[in-house]
């Protein structure tokens, strides 16, 4: 027994001798890593704010930031070392602290120092661009928690000894091993907790700073990984996270002529909120909902003024507001000159080359310029920061980017041109071409749907402006400002909101046929758009005519429903088109119709998105026969509506969408006979082939949805902003050092 007791004491002694130093050094290295990790997290979270404040020389802001960070119970003090001198520090910084005690930077890890007779750990982080900084953020860590951990370790060993005394050497050894393994687990757990943003129950100090920063960093890191992967699924969440991650704290202002929600007074006196038939709005609305911010647009509804507050603002969407619509009022004269005149009789036909002669009047131009001024002023009035992200939309506002740049030089201006940009020869027709180009070159980034349109724009600038064009980076420098020209193919919401609540396809087919007065088994084709001469509405009717000529068996078995929302009816070219379309439909119906059957149904009224989707789902084919179109979102909406993977898309080769949706049947809308043959091909395509084609197109639209469109523009803007920020930091440093660098390179997007 005594022998066993002696053995137990011997084993206990061995346990102490072997385990105590191992456990102590383990706790120390664990704590050092903890300190290092915490310091890095704190620095990453506050880095941009610190660097900005430092570059501005804003000591008050730095002090406030440092004060906030130092509330963490494990951080004793924070300081700023500039050129080896401590220039700013929080209250807890010991008087004998010198910057030479701090390590070179974060990579060097924590360094132990003795201050006021006590040991502390110091970490340091370089400020400004890598390799450029001569300033360091130093963090002094309170080591009380390490002692606490060491105490816990000692206590565990004593417990092990007591176990030896009572349970014998073998048991004590087993217990020690068990305790050690539990320590290991808790060490791993603690490290995991710090990485993943969990808080230890017994460490309330973590909650003061760690919780929020770590969980936000954790989420952002996760999102960054998602966004960086090639197969990123873009949706409102990833867009929001991309914005928060890449453009933290930024303010988004959208500017367009057309507003996303129109309040109209109906005949019965009630107010109806309408969604306009506009590709721009269908694309941008879900994006703005995700990003929040302000959308400035012309208030064109008959009850718009009643819906806004005293600042002309209204929260939208009406059911669940997520951003502010700021309405701008235009007089009839302004609308005539700016919207109907210069925008729609001048630029629209000029850019679309649809054989309608552009009309340019000096009086329209003057109003176009002054309305652009008004939009620019509204942006300045709405901006809460000097550097908002301004998303300017379309050909109505070509002068606004320069006007905003003059007023808010630090704004990031992304202009998107929703219509085609013609070749330089065609654009040369515009009497104010230089002014239009100069206005657009106020943008930081100028986007078009396709590379082809980007190239046309670069050629146009080359031909008419004294500027520097860099064909490698697709950028243009004019008057010291650089604009990047990029293709961003626009798209739609995925899954589209209008699909929600749609009945199954067979049910919809029956309902729609009944509503249109068609026999249940009749095959249906649809075309849906605004009554615009660029859409090729007459041409597709001629295609239907040619189809029935060539394949008369289809008479009585096929109907083509053309939905066309009246638009810009003040202009003769638009009124004439509607009259011509009605006449042509009547002629074709008279030529081929019989026994109450008519091949063409013309529905000349606005359809809300859910009605449009219903028609798409009820049809066998959809014809998009634009004579020229930047993108055409109707094609993408048709694909999105067909979750049954059936239906055939007949798509013009002259719509930007044909570059992406190559599984559609591509047609030349100017060739009626070809279109007739393609209609026949669509109606006889078997279900398996329809599925194959539709599946690929759906995958395409899903992956390249509108959140990706916006996300890519915003990520490019973020890259540009980061590079500009580094340039500013370098400039600030050089100014301080009194040696500005003449040969500094411009940032490349
Ligand atoms: O194609 C460019 C575009 O802005 C579309 O987004 C929109 O459908 C149309 O032009 C503008 O229509 P409106 O003149 O009715 O705003």
The hetero molecules present are: 6-O-phosphono-beta-D-fructofuranose
Return Rg in Å: 34 Å
Structural class: alpha/beta
Query: What is the percent of helical residues?
Result: 40-55%
Distance between the termini: 81 Å
Q: What is the third-level CATH name, the topology of one domain?
A: Rossmann fold
Strand order of the largest sheet: 10-11-9-6-12-13-14-17-16-15
Overall CATH architecture of one domain: 3-Layer(aba) Sandwich
Quaternary structure: single chain
Number of strands: 23
Major β-sheet annotation: 10 strands, mixed
Contiguous uncertain segments of 5+ residues = 1-5, 172-177, 183-210
Counted by DSSP, the helix tally is 22
| Beta-strand percentage range | 15-25%
Overall, the morphology is elongated
Q: Could you tell me the mean pLDDT? A: 86
CATH superfamily of one domain: Glycogen Phosphorylase B
CATH class categorisation of one domain:
Alpha Beta
Descriptive notes:
There is one protein chain. The protein is 50% helix and 16% strand. It is built from 22 helices and 23 strands. Among the domains are: 2-148, PAS domain (Beta-Lactamase); 199-231 and 705-749; 250-328, no CATH class; 504-704, Glycogen Phosphorylase B (Rossmann fold, 3-Layer(aba) Sandwich). The chain is elongated. The strands form 4 sheets. It has a 10-stranded mixed sheet with strand order 10-11-9-6-12-13-14-17-16-15, with helices on both faces. A 6-stranded parallel sheet has the order 20-19-18-21-22-23, sandwiched between helices. Strands 2-1-5-4-3 form a 5-stranded antiparallel sheet, covered by helices on one side. It has 749 residues and is an alpha/beta fold. Residues 258, 278-280, 394, 418-419, 567-568, 630 line the site of 6-O-phosphono-beta-D-fructofuranose. 6-O-phosphono-beta-D-fructofuranose binds at residues 258, 278-280, 394, 418-419, 567-568, 630.
